[in-house]
Amino acid sequence: MAECGASGSGSSGDSLDKSITLPPDEIFRNLENAKRFAIDIGGSLTKLAYYSTVQHKVAKVRSFDHSGKDTEQDHEPPYEISVQEEVTARLHFVKFENTYIEACLDFIKDHLVNTETKVIQATGGGAYKFKDLIEEKLQLKVDKEDVMTCLIKGCNFVLKNIPHEAFVYQKDSDPEFRFQTNHPNIFPYLLVNIGSGVSIVKVETEDRFEWIGGSSIGGGTFWGLGALLTKTKKFDELLHLASRGQHTNVDMLVQDIYGGAHETLGLSGNLIASSFGKSATADQEFSKEDMAKSLLHMISNDIGQLACLYARLHCLDRVYFGGFFIRGHPVTMRTITYSINFFSKGEVQALFLRHEGYLGAIGAFLKGAEQDNPNQYSWGENYAGSSGLMSSSPELCPTQRARSGTFDLLEMDRLERPLVNLPLLLDPSSYVPDTVDLTDDALARKYWLTCFEEALDGVVKRAVASQPGSVDAAERAEKFRQKYWNKLQTLRHQPFAYGTLTVRSLLDTREHCLNEFNFPDPYSKVKQKDNGVALKCFQRVVSALDALDWEERQLALVKGLLAGNVFDWGAKAVSDVLESDPQFGFEEAKKKLQERPWLVDSYGKWLQRLKGPPHKCALIFADNSGVDVILGVFPFVRELLSRGTEVILACNSGPALNDVTYSESLIVAERIAAMDPVIHSALREERLLLVQTGSSSPCLDLSRLDKGLAVLVREHGADLVVIEGMGRAVHTNYHAALCCESLKLAVIKNSWLAERLGGQLFSVIFKYEVPAE
Amino acid sequence: MGGWLGRQRWLLRMGAGWLAAPMERHGRAAATSASSAREPVPGGPDGRRREPLRRRANSASAPAVGASAEGVRRDRPGSYSGATSASRQRVESLKKKRPLFPWFGLDIGGTLVKLVYFEPKDITAEEEEEEVESLKSIRKYLTSNVAYGSTGIRDVHLELKDLTLCGRKGNLHFIRFPTHDMPAFIQMGRDKNFSSLHTVFCATGGGAYKFEQDFLTIGDLQLCKLDELDCLIKGILYIDSVGFNGRSQCYYFENPADCEKCQKLPFDLKNPYPLLLVNIGSGVSILAVYSKDNYKRVTGTSLGGGTFFGLCCLLTGCTTFEEALEMASRGDSTKVDKLVRDIYGGDYERFGLPGWAVASSFGNMMSKEKREAVSKEDLARATLITITNNIGSIARMCALNENINQVVFVGNFLRINTIAMRLLAYALDYWSKGQLKALFSEHEGYFGAVGALLELLKIP
Fold it and tell me: What is the DSSP secondary structure assignment for residue B270, as one 8-state letter?
């Protein structure tokens, strides 16, 4: 049933003073531009949602107007960079205890500039109670939305837009949260909402869902009956009692009835035959802990059993659990999971959601924002602005909670264009971008966290250096350092905080934090310089290649791709060399490369393939700016074009490290076209197409790519995918299975990783794969 | 015989009311719910439920095969452990001919022991002459009393008269006493030298295993252990076939929600199959019965009669089942439960939920003020409604999943419990939109014991 009484999310409550102790501008961010509000008021927690626009600086690149100028002057950069303000859309969600509601509403009122907003969507049991207060404080009309409709809208939204939203709970494993990769089709599923009662809803499509059943034995029963039995008033305290109790003192077990015989009969003696069966006596006192535990088992088992019966009747195997009974409580997630496994014999999976607490607020917001069509966009979780899972869990993080646990934040950025699967994935439902799961691999986790910590100084320095004219760059960079450092510390203790921890998520978090403090593209100048230098060498490199015979040329092209890949500011070993020796050249890079046979070497197979018919169309994911894209990728592209293969060159939509962006790639291609007739005609005839990936990550998630890219790939019948660079081909996609030929190449520029893979620094990965017939 | 069941320990604390905790349970059958999540039962999830499609081919000759809910082969019911030569002889004689008197069937549950006793009324003078003293004294004692010691009760109103069993005519008596008085019962057997009668005790229920050794070492009595689900089904089918002294055994409620119009009406179970059988003892077992020999255990729940009574004891301080029910009859559960209308002001139309439906059992008890405003009677009533609704809900889901539309509720939870029966009848009808029918049976909790007796007599 509806959430009409929610958990006190912790020890705080009546006794806490009602003032906001944190700087509110860190909580209700971007309020000035907030234009649409929704609120979900539960029994003890309020979730506020608003839509806002964020103004931030972006580095734009633009070709010079070359008319009347000598373009070949050595000192001149290849294009100009200008910093512009850009407005992007962001969804803010803030969760706080009801005790703060008045203070929060006051704060919002004082900072709300936008006067177009007239209405606030409200849901949750408390929406009735606080209606007048909201209308009075905010001068907004309260529009009440149906609780369950909001929950389901919210659930669909997070399942579609947040990778690693759902997880299974596995007790005794470390960590206990196992995140699920997003299934491309989230429907149908069962949502079991355990509020004061239980609602079981079957969700079939975006707009179609059906209440198929429920139970009155839910969170309210645990709380109400628990309060009667133990004289303990608070929900969290009851759970705490339960976690310390022994239910076998209260419950009648099979072994109590069968005696010792259960063993010889093969019966599980620990099974509960009758909940509270032993309490039918007046001669015994039962401890609060034991009764609370027995009650918890009774209710969890009952809900699990009913959920299984409904799942079976409707032939569903995915069951998401939500509601205040579940919300962030390992104790209840554990008992519910146990019950589901027990009653379904493993056929049904109990799934939980990272942002379960926000579903109602998200749904209410979406209801109110229907005219903006939020569902036609893709959204991305902003790691910089969001609190992690369990940020307010007293069980897991008592110290953190004391400081900031009263407020929990979720921010989602609206992405410019919708993201979809790469149509060439062999099995989108089992595709996992990341190669190593750092939540699983404690050794790797420790290494990478330390690695990112150690690299932080350099990143801060570079950020400051990238904005020489800014007066507050140093101050902002320091804030960035603090923020990212804190994220790393959180992840050390709670690797599951933002879903599965991976090298990709660590890199993405860093990018988000940099953006947060207006360092949109710290490498823009470096990239500009590198591109300029490399462009000057292009013709020499191409002539040298053309002079080689066919077979030599193929190897040289591949070596060029690999050598270009050594130029990567993202990898510490390389940035060290480059900082100390800026003249480190292309030829020197080639010398650094491992001699064949490489660490992974299927070059022979690739060469053989090249002797056959040309590919129809190659999709190439480029990596770094400068030498990599200009002297490595473009000559390779040129060769493919000469063979009669069309090429789609995909670059990042937004900046990440020194990776070449889509807009940079356009300029680079234009400059090369001016020098090279092959590229020139291919661009004109659209045999060479430049596209954006939709991503701003140094890694690559093939399940979240720009829709335009996917359309082109289909239209042109791409039959070869080339992925280069450590971030895209090793940290991610190393194991990605495609339904066409693929080439994954990278130079391992991290000695720890190289060692792990059984090689040395600058080992070469050349992985050419042909799908099984 | 006067001493048996005479333990006073319970009386001291519980008052004279504690003559019988009326919940029986079928130990293994009712065992349902997951135990400690901290220490999971190894293999628990696969172990518990009978394979859904596995049905019993023959429950009489080889009832143990596939009978185990745990998928582990159990002792053959009807097998004898520690076979001494004397017991073997008894087995042999059992096979050859009608067993010697006395004829008992015993069902030892988690809370209650159910005993059925066949009193032959066609005893010839010659027979009476030969009847050993101990046998005679048992007969006289059982049939001339309605209460035994402080806790044994004979349900006189259930007595089946002029029954013919194995060619003998007589009356069938129904007796119950708390399982915790089992040691006294065994001691009585020893004192009265039961073993000299060369009788066989056919027993079912978890207690048949738990007390087997005590029967042997203290009473020198050999128990013949029987599968409780087999016994339950055998007993139900048999009792239904003989009727209730000319009346119908099976009944249902018409207009169960209406105090004025509610009527208990006989039901002719002429087409018994398929049938969903819900046995509510301390816990609950749910069986799908397709024919006399073909059934499966569908599921069970640990929220049963034991939960109702246990919670009532904790919440109200009551000491007997009768007292708990009496309090419940005077209480108002809507003070304790949060109803749909308490949340939505009326019906929740979006989901077609009526305002009177319970949204959250004990939901009002989250509030301190409301906790202080409820009476013990209200709490007892709410406990009864909660447990009963939940059983109805699970039974309904099982009926849907198994595609069965008649549901028979049995077990001692229903004894003198019209509130629960009417609620089950109403809930099943309402939520299934008239598709499901709730049926009840007069001998509620005694079917297992009857089944055990039938095994003794080898009545198929």
Answer: S
Is A216 in contact with B361 (CB distance < 8 Å)?
A: yes
CA of A171, closest CA in chain B: separation in Å? Answer: 8
| Beta-carbon contacts of residue B202 (< 8 Å; ≥ 6 apart) | B104, B105, B106, B223, B224, B226, B452, B453, B455, B456
**For the segment B233-282, what is each residue's pLDDT rounded down to a tens digit?**
999 999 999 999 999 999 999 999 998 999 999 999 888 899 999 999 99
Chain A residues lying within 8 Å of B313, measured CB to CB = 279-282
The answer to whether B389 contacts A233, with C-beta atoms less than 8 Å apart, is no
Look at residue A314 and give its three-state secondary structure.
coil
> Alpha-carbon distance B79 to A597, whole Å?
73
Q: Which long-range contacts (CB under 8 A, 24 or more apart) does B131-136 make?
A: B131/B101, B132/B196, B132/B197, B134/B192, B134/B193, B134/B194, B134/B196, B134/B197, B135/B101, B135/B102, B135/B197
Helix count and strand count (H, E) for chain A: 27, 25
pLDDT tens digits, one per residue of A392-431: 544 433 333 333 446 788 999 988 888 999 999 999 989 9
Give pLDDT tens digits for A262-319.
776 666 778 999 999 999 876 789 999 999 999 999 999 999 999 999 999 999 989 9
Q: What are phi and psi of A133, to 5 degrees?
A: -60, -45
Considering Cα of B432, then B433, then B437, then B438, what sign does the dihedral take?
Answer: positive
Shortest CA distance from A340: residue in chain B: B45
CB A480 within 8 A of CB A463: yes
Q: Output the pLDDT for position B90.
A: 54
* Dihedral (Cα; A133, A134, A135, A137), 10-degree rounding: 80
| Interface touch A274/B30, C-beta < 8 Å | yes
pTM listed for this prediction: 0.86
**What span, in angstroms and rounded, lies between the C-alpha atoms of B117 and A14?**
63
What pLDDT digit, counting tens, does each position of A316-353 carry? 989 999 999 998 788 999 999 999 999 999 999 999 99
Cα–Cα distance, B325 to B331 (Å, whole number):
10
ω into residue A635 within 30 of 0, thus cis? no
Structural domains for chain A: 24-62+75-159+359-412 (3.30.420), 165-249+285-352 (3.30.420.40), 434-515 (1.20.1700.10), 521-767 (3.40.50.10880)
B280 contacts on A by Cβ (under 8 Å): none
CB contact under 8 A, A218 and B360: yes
Q: Which helix (H) or strand (E) holds A179?
A: strand A177-179
Residues of A557-575 as b/e, b for ≥16 C-beta within 10 angstroms? Answer: bbbbbbbbbbbbbbbbbbb
Q: How confident is the model at residue A569 (pLDDT cuts 50, 70, 90)?
A: low
Calpha distance B106→B453 (Å, rounded):
7
Q: Which pLDDT score, from 0 to 100, does residue B385 have?
A: 98
Q: B-contacting residues of A 292-331, CB under 8 Å?
A: 297-298, 300-302, 304-306, 309-310, 312-313
- A153 vs chain B: nearest CA distance in angstroms? 15
Residues forming a β-bridge with A365: none
Non-local CB neighbours of A612 within 8 Å, separated by 6+ positions = none
Angle at A589 between CA A588 and CA A594, to 5 degrees: 115
The Cα–Cα gap between B364 and A129 comes to: 17
Q: Catalytic: which of B24, B119, B212, B228?
A: B228
Q: What residues of chain A lie within 8 A of the CB of B111, using their CB?
A: 274, 277, 280
Q: Say yes or no to pLDDT of B38 above 50.
A: no
User: CB–CB of B30 and A228 under 8 A?
Assistant: no
pLDDT in tens, B187-208: 988 888 888 887 788 999 999 9
Q: What is the mean pLDDT of chain B?
A: 82
